Amino acid sequence: MPRGRIGTIITVLVAVASLSVVAVMVETVRMAYRDAEYRAEREGLGLLQASESYIASRLRVWDLALEMSVDLVQDPRFSSTPVADKNALLANLASKISFIGSLLVLDSNGNIVLDPLSPQPRLGNFADRDYFLAQKPRDAGLYISQPFRSRLRNNDPSIGISRRISNPDGSFGGIVLIAIRLNSIRDLFSSLDPGQRGSITLFNAAGRVLMRQPSLDGTGDTDIDLSSSSTFARMLQERSGTFTAVAITDGTERLYNFSQIPGTDLFMAVGLAWNDILSGWWFRLYMTVAFTLTLCLLALVVAIRLQRELARRERVENELAKLARTDPLTELANRRVFDESLEREWRRTKRTHKELSLLLVDSDHFKQVNDRHGHTIGDRVLKKIGDVLARHARRAGDLAVRYGGEEFAMILPDTPAEGACKLASEICQAVEEETGHMTSLSQACTVSIGVASSHAHVATASQLVKEADAALYLAKEAGRNCVKCFEPPLKGTAFPAT
Asked: Any keyword Protein biosynthesis (predicted)?
């Protein structure tokens, strides 16, 4: 072969190899860009879900406190209660709730009539506030105010949530107000990391900022008006989604994940700055150009190791999530799962109008078993009770849980009281029989069971739990090893285990 032709072939091969390397570099850079974008979307969505879930859960707690306070104030007996006792009742309720700046009861003129969180009763009129005006002509339900500077707490940035107090004739009787310190929300946002130039913003449908972190003014940018921004207009129209825009507050281009907090006019937005998202991508681009194929191979190794690490972390997180929802001794679901499942089934019951039954199960004389036979045998008894409950949770929707200590619970969807009581009696009998076969025990262990079912008088899931607990108390009073079913007014009907 002529030398010139060999040289041409070598040149062509080098050119092809070079073009291949260039093609690999271009594809690698393109894929790196897409990977950075995808990870940024996932990261932003994770931050959004975490912050939105926290705010939504806080709102539910605050609203529940408002509803309980309104019910208390509207109770005819409350009006004859001394003011000090009224404040004590409301203060006890508020002490269980975080982030509250003030809990106030205002009369129909906007004057403070109860101020349970202040050592000395304060005077003030708030008839000009929107949280008062919105409730005056009609019941506005849960009303979330525009941000304001508190007159009672040295201009502390706050929002107010209120519910209407109605007189017996339906006329306006005032409001119950909870003032929320926005600085406490800022502390939450400070614990989240949207990157060096990223942002987390809570705002309302009027375009008013409640809290932004990091803030331009160092205090949360409270009350900045976003209503003229095209970014805000898009969020208001779409309600949830992802898009890229330039912020009017600081001119930074960000990838926004946003959504409206359900049941409110509040929005949460997490913006990750593209400079932060692509910082690693630019570095990879420069190094790829400088070191060509070597860097491409190194990037591949790094990507493989990264994927393996992510897969390992995912396995660990899945295992931790499973452990967080399971009682390690009985392998039943734990209290956390119970609370979530009961709320879910309660909402479904309200939609379908089918009965939901709840069993509360308590081991009789369990302390004596521990004292006499030791904690190891006591654990075996609890495991045996858990096994019995698990076997009797026969349907897909039935859920047996360890409620705490020697207490267990069972949620029975679509189950009337008669069926629940019958099942409870079977459980009593099974526990007595199976623990009677344990050679390490001198006698069989028994359980007492309280049963409650959702009827028209049951307003909330927590009331259902209270009624089951009351029935369990009657079962204990009746001599244990029996079933008591709640019937309003509480009478209880015994269902012996044998």
From this structure: no
pLDDT for position 301 = 59
Q: 28 with 144: CB under 8 angstroms?
A: no
Say how many C-beta atoms besides its own lie within 10 A of residue 47's C-beta. Answer: 22
For the chain, the first-to-last Cα distance in angstroms comes to 103
DSSP bridge partners of 495: 483
| C-alpha–C-alpha distance, residues 354 and 304, integer Å | 52
Reported as a pLDDT band with limits 50, 70 and 90, residue 316 is confident
As given in the structure block, the two tokens for residue 117 are 């969180």
Tokens 């006329």 locate to 171
Pinpoint the residues of the chain covered by CATH 3.30.70.270: 335-496
pLDDT of res. 7: 46
What tens digit of pLDDT does each residue of 161-188 get? 999 999 989 999 999 999 988 888 887 7
Strand 112-114 and strand 157-166: pairing?
unpaired
Residue 302 pLDDT: 55
Look up residue 252 and give its two tokens: 């930074």
List, in sequence order, every residue forming a beta bridge with 202; answer none if it has no partner: 211, 268
pLDDT class of 145 with cuts at 50, 70, 90: very high
Task: Tell me the β-bridge partners of 410.
Answer: 359, 400
Q: Cβ distance 447 to 363 under 8 Å?
A: yes
Residue showing tokens 């600081």: 250
- What lies within 8 Å, CB to CB, of 180 at 6+ separation is 62, 99, 100, 101, 158, 159, 160, 161
Closest CA to 43 of 256, 329, 308: 256
Rounded Cα distance between 138 and 110, Å, is 15
CATH architecture of residue range(s) 184-277 = 2-Layer Sandwich (3.30)
Q: Are 443 and 436 in contact (CB under 8 A)?
A: yes
Residue ranges, CATH 3.30.450.20, the chain? 184-277
CB count in 10 Å sphere of residue 495: 18
AA letter at 27 = E
pLDDT value at residue 420? 94
Provide the whole-model pTM. Answer: 0.50
Q: Which two tokens stand for residue 281?
A: 């991508």
**Which of 19-28, 220-229, 239-248, 398-407 is the least confident region?**
19-28
C-alpha distance from residue 212 to each of 183, 209, 402 (Å) = 10, 7, 41
Distance between CA 462 and CA 296 in Å, rounded? 59
276 beta partners: none
CA distance 49 to 344: 19
Nearest to residue 99, comparing CAs of 135, 55, 47, 152?
Answer: 55
The class that CATH gives domain 335-496 is alpha beta
Higher-confidence residue: 96 or 166? 166
213: helix, coil or strand? strand
**Closest C-alpha to 94, from 114, 75, 111, 113:** 114
When pLDDT is averaged across residues 268-281 and rounded to a whole number, the result is 85
